[in-house]
Specification:
This protein is an alpha/beta fold and 376 residues long. It has helices spanning 2-51, 59-68, 93-100, 123-136, 152-156, 177-181, 244-251, 295-301, 322-333, 349-355, 368-375; strands at 108-111, 142-146, 166-173, 191-196, 206-207, 216-220, 227-228, 236-243, 259-265, 277-278, 284-288, 303-304, 310-314, 339-345, 361-366. Keywords: Coiled coil.
Length: 376
Amino acid sequence: MLDFLAADRAFLAEKDAEIQELQAQISALERAISLLHAARKPAQERLNSYKYPILTLPNEIIAEIFLQFLPPYPSAPPLLGALSPTRLTHICRRWRDIACKTPELWRAIDMDPMNDDQLPMSLDRTIFLTGLWASRSGHCPLSIRLGAYHDPLSTLAPLIPHRDRWEHLTLRIENTRPLRAIQGAFPLLKSFDIRLGSPISDDVVVTLQNLPLLSTVVLDDFRTPHISLPWSQLTSLTLSWIYIEHCISILRQTTHLVHCTFDLYFHPGTQNDFVELVLPQLETLDVQTDAVSPLYGHFFQCLVAPALQHLRIPEHLLQPNPIESLSSFISRSGCHLDELRVTEAYVSQNAYRNAFSAIPDIKMERAESESESESD
């Protein structure tokens, strides 16, 4: 019995010695491997820098490169697709971390439900991405564009809690319900671009107040006054497809207007009861219209713009005598034009230059029929 015990003890001692020897060899190998890793690391880093030089850049530089990838603010990239900052989060973990921690990448939100592959995006997907971008934008002012594809009330819902950061707002909507839903203070809003669908089913006038920084407004397809804004503080105004009487009503309130573009629209009930309209600070005026009406001349005859420097106007607005009408306007206003553009022109450019030699830059945009005859 004792002999068996002694043999087993000897066997275990032998195996323990072998195990210790192997463990010593393993430890030596691990140290050797660690030394090899340490030795190859500088060479690998140099190779990485040659093959992937962007990996050597600090995060701040990479973030700046990402920002240059976007269109200039306040223009917005698509929510998805190759041109979206979302694509940057799919490259690698480091890029995703940098992109998600760069609020400026997410501050311009275009809620167009068409992605880069022109595939329709569901309403739920649009709402999710809109909320995600708003949260990633941190405390940045926001530029928002809403197309007329989805339910505007649902699509805007994730952004309404952030409206104290809205800086630029573009809406393409069918009625005034979304306007009524977002009424409130907009302390940072500087520009507001809105187009109502036509025909418009409701006649509610929405009054937006508490807009201390609002200076630029674009109203498109507003044939009736569906919205009231702090007109007196605006410096830039574009009115497209607006009835002339509503245009005049708005312009009478824009005493600080510097730049103005409007596309006049007449309806059969328009009355010739225009009185003097003074825009004391207006420097740029761009008038557009396709229709011809004798009321145009009456409208222009009531306009006074003493600070005007740049004028673009269709010739039929100056009828019956374009040279005489324009001369009367300049004399009445006391302005000194630097630039004159006459569209739909039939009178020769030389005639304008001879009559207005004090204007350094005069150009004609010929009427289509005359352009065709000249080409013949």
